[in-house]
Amino acid sequence: MSYRVEFNKKSIKALLKLPKSIQSNITKRIENLATDPYAGHNDVKKLSGELQAYRLRVGDYRVLYRILHDKVIIEIIHIAHRREVYR
Description:
The protein is an alpha+beta fold.
């Protein structure tokens, strides 16, 4: 089963501001995430304090997302450099 990936406005804006090479790395990793959002090789970690919120590590950047099982959707919440993403 493959999940559909949806971006919010904030995450699309953040992604488009990044250099093209980083954008392509992040989009490839998000595509891999859609096939298995829990795979260990994706370097995924559940965030504490948030209900069903996870982070995907892509080099120095982090992608925060939620998994909506009932709708089979991965909602991308935020994309930012590691020093800024958790603020």
